[in-house]
Structures are given as structure tokens and as C-alpha cells.
Specification:
heterodimer; A: 334 residues; mainly alpha; two-stranded antiparallel sheet; 13 helices; 2 strands; globular; disordered C terminus; B: 374 residues; 14 helices; 1% strand
Chain lengths: 334, 374
Amino acid sequence: MRGRISRSSSWESSTLAREVSTVELPWYIAGIIRAILDGILMGSLFALMAVGLTIVYRVTQVANFAHAEYVTYGAYAAYVFAVTLEFGMIGGAVAALVIPGILAVVNDELVFKPLWRRGSTPLHFLVASIGSGLILRYSLLAFAASVATEFLKIRLPVFPKAIYQIGGIVPVTYVHLLAPAVGVAATVLLHLLFTRTKLGKAMRATASNPTLARITGINIFLIRRVTWFIGGALAGIAGYIYAYYTPANPETGWFFLLWIFAAAIMGGFTFYGTIISGILLGIIGNVTMFIANQTVGLSTSYQPAIALVVLVAVLLWRPEGVIRLQSLSLRTRA
Amino acid sequence: MAEVAGFVLNVLTFYGIYLILALSFNIEYGFAGLPNFGKVLFYSIGAYLAGSMSAWIAVTVAGFAEGEPGKPVYCAGPAYTAMTEVAKTSVLVDIGVFMLSLVVALIVGAVVGVISSYPTLRLRGDFLAISLLALGEIVRIAAYTEYWPVCGYDGLSGIPTPFAWMGDAGKYAYTALVWVIAGGVYFTVQRMTNSPWGRALKSVRDDELAAEVYGKNIARVKAQAMAVGSALAALAGVLYAFHVGGVFAADFIPLPTFLVIAMVMLGGPANNKGVVLGTGVIVLIDQLLNASVLNALGIPLPQGFLNAVTYLKYVLMGVIIILILMFRPQGLIPEKPLDTPIVRRASELVSTHMPTQQTQAAKENTSDRQDKRS
């Protein structure tokens, strides 16, 4: 996250681009445009990550503090497949979807499902997810520190190129298009899954009443696995896009944890609400940071504070979520 | 041998400090059911208060005033010498700043605990967990970025510790002092949790609705638990700062929180004796699994393992937390019924009178059956 911020503060150095440009933008307009662009990028990633948290929470009642680690593992899976095993960027993307998905399923099978069967309380799930997060994060760090030191900081081989310069000075890269595109694709696919397929309807049924769903003949264990896989895969692909944009390290996911929870809580743990909240949070975070940095000179390392302020405001004002969108015109079809 | 003695002393001191921290987490998590994952926040607040106040008093006493622009006076390079000079000579300053830090940390810790948990007290536990976890991280970032209160990334060192005037014997005295305070905290917490207040905490944890029906103000009871827990955590932070003799903002990453969670889960939530046991085990693991300690103790290990040992320690903590939750969620020493004079007397009465009655009843039963059979 830091690399991105330092780059956004050095925008004025691109004098060459300014000479080439025909339209001369004032620096603050350019800065705001850049903040909004980066905000959409980060917001799409927040949305992808938080949607996984939301559906897992809805189906299994686990407020998963280890969810952010799937983001890290997505980035590392992509790195291993794209760089070490030379499968290319597409292979990396597939690995970033599949490996964190499987990891999330394994995490559930080994930790949360046994606890759920023993009748553990949500408080126990919470503590267990902290434990899972510790294992995932620090085993990666231990591996990087002892065996493979190049893992301490990874960067995917293909650098995002600027494909267009707004006003001649604000670069738009592939990643700025890739992140929203993946976000939209994931939203559409999930929407179709939840509304048009039996599996998706079974997932919604399990979320609203697991016992009833089981009596109706829904295989709730399969539903659990599918839910965890989707959650992990979405977090993983977000990690892939992030690593494509800026270098990642074993603690990358940890820095996203607050944003993920802020987006999910702001959206009231509803599907569309979480996606919209994630994108909004990304834009609010980047624009507020830019303005505060330029006017008051606030250090950019305070960016998580914006997420916390938003989170606390939501909890004080409407703890059930600001943007609650359970469904888009689903009632007529029900 | 010197290394072993130093190691044992260090373990004992950290045992005392972490015992206070774990007891405070036990009040919140074990008794009141509040997952305060921001434990390190209150721990760090105590350390920042102790560090900045003692450093400021020391430079004032030393008459040192040539600070660097934009930094507190005590952050200037030569301030270190001035402070250590004061610490070595003035007993009054050493003891005074220690006592003052303890009192201020208790008050500030309690106030911050209530304010920071206010938005989430009426809500689900995971909201409290994430907001306090995040607040802890942000306060650490702020302390690391700004020169106020503990000199940012430079860190603050050379603060006057309470027994600095004693020289080398001061370490032993300090460990003893930590244990006196930890013992006091243990007995206070034991009394508090066995009081009606402790029962109110348990009732809120077990069934909020029922507790509310019996006239308990849920949010107020939770806020009181947060106040006591945070004040004690700040106290532990003060003891930590004076043990290390300095404060470094980078130390307050959320790892102490995870250690404390492992301690309470392992020992037994809502059982203070269990927490004493769990803390001992985890502190020993925490202090032993350290590259420098392993080297000093002369245990031959491959370099790769030594590089990874700090991280493996936290993997182990995660494994402990999960295994305990799965196979022994009540902890090594499970929660016990109340321990108050009246309950104790009542159970004595029961044990002295009831068994005879029971055996008599049992005899009558058997004789009845025999009668019927015959």
C-alpha cells in the first residue's frame, strides 16, 4: 500500500507528460482525478475481498479474521505459478483463484466445521479465526525468512503500463481497468449464481436457516465448501491484482483486514451493500487522504485511520449497515 | 551461567507483566465475553505514558533544555546522558516517576477503555474486536510517525527506572517489585470476579436478555469491565516500559494481544488460577523461542531455523489456540463455581451434613428394596 501512496505524491515530477499534453490541468484537479482512479482500483479490490467475507459470514456465522490471509496467499500463489513455475500471467491468475479457494475450504474443514459441530459460539469462531490467521500469516513469514528469502517481497514480472494519460499527466494503467472489470464480472457471476442456479438458491437458503435447509434435502456440507471456496477465491484474485499493481509481502493481507471489515459492516453484511461499500470506501479513503495530505500535511501512513473513522461512524449511526442491499429486484422473481 | 540467570530473571519479570495483562483480558473475555483484540493498545498507552512522563521529568530535573526543533526535549541525542545521570543519582525522581506513572496509567487506561469501546458496547462482539484491533494499529502508526510522545521511529531510551540508583542489584529488585504488584493485581481481580460485580459480568456473558430482565444495565456492565481491563493493561504497559528502560513504538504490533489470547484460552477463561498457569507456559515459550536466547543457552540449531524461530512461535500460538478450542474449550483449569465466604461455608455445611443424609437415604432405599424383595 505504501508504494502506491508514495507514487501518488510524486505526480508533479512528470513534467515531460505535462509538456506533451494539450490540456493543462491544475495540479489539484489532476491529484483528485488520480485519487479517484486509485480509489476505484482499491475499492474494487476491497469489494472483492469483503464480498467473500460477507457470504462466508452469512452462510456459516464465522466473522473470519483470517480472511485477509487468503489475499496474501493469492498474491503468492500467482507469484509462484507465474514466476517460479513460468506458467505466465494467466496461469498465475488461475492459481490465485484456485489455491486460496482450496486453502479456505481446508481452513473450514480443519477448524471451523469441527468447532461448529461441537456447538461453539460465535465468540469461539472469532478466536479460532485469529488463530487460523496467525498460522497462515506466520508460516508464510517463517518460510520466507528461512528457506526462500525472495518471498519477503514479491512483484509479478509484468509491470502495469500506462495506456492513457488523462490531461496528459494522470496515467491510467491496465490494472486500473482490470480491477473494476474483475469486480463487475464477479458481481454479475455471483448475481447469476444466487438468482438463477439451484446451488445459489441453496446457498441463500442455508444462510437464512441451516436447519430448515438441511431438512429440505440441501447438502449443507457441500454448500459450506462451495461458500468457503468462493470466498477464498475472490480474496485470492484480489491479492493477484494487488500484487500486479504494487509489490506484496507476507503481511499485505493484514493491512487489508480493517478495510475488509469496514466494507462488510458498512454494507450490513449484505451482498450488493458490501460491494458498493467497498468501492465507496476505496474512493473515500484515497480522496480524503489526498486532500488531508495536501492541506494539513497529514502523513499518508494514517490512511487506515480513515477506514476506522468510517467504521466507527457507521457503528454509532447505523450499526445494522448503511447500504443494505440484499437483492436487486429479487422479490418479483421469488 | 550469567546468561541463564539473566534469562530466568527476564522470564520472571515478563511472567509478572503478562500475568497482569492476561488477568485483565480474562476479566473482559473470560468473565464478560468481550473479545478485546486491542489489548496491545492499552498496553502501549501505559508504556507511552510512563516513557514520556518519566523522560520529561528527568530532563526537567537535569535542567536540560536544548531540544531539537519539532521534537520533545527528551528526544534530543544528549538527553539520554542527562536522563541516565539523573536516574543514577536521584532516588526520589526514580521512585516518584514510577509511582506517578502507575497512577496516571490506571486513570488514563480506564478512560480510554470506556471511550474506545463506547461505539460497540451494545453490538456484537466482532465489531468490538475489529474496531479495537484497528485502533491499536492506528495508535501504533501515529506513535511511530510522530515525535510525540515517544520520539517516533527513533524510540525513547534511558528513562529513569525505579531501581536505577541501585546499580546491578536493581534488576533483581525490579523483578521482585513486578511480582509484588502482580500478586496484588491477582488478589484484587480474584476478589472482584467473585463479587456480585463478577457475577453480573458472567450473567451478561451467558445471556444478555436474562441479565437485562434482572435489571442489569448491559452496556454499563460491559463498560465497567472494559475500564478495569484497560486500566490493568495500562499498568502492565508501565511495568514493561520500566523493565526495558525505554519505549519503542514498533514493539506494539498486535503480537502481545495474540500471546495474551493464547494464555487465557490455554489456562482457562473465567478462571484466574488457570490464567496464572497458562501465562507461565506461554511466557516460557515466548522467551525461549528467541534466536538470541537459544544462542546464549548454547543450543546448536541450523541458521534457517533461527531466522524463522520468531515467526514459528506465533504459528505455535495459533495452533495452541485452535487445539484448545477444539479439544478443551474450558481450558486446562475449567471455570469453577463462585468462591466467596458464604458459598464456601455453605458447601462446607453441605459436605458435613448431606453425605450422612445421603448415605442414610441410600441405606433406607436398599433396605426398602430388600424388604420388597422379601
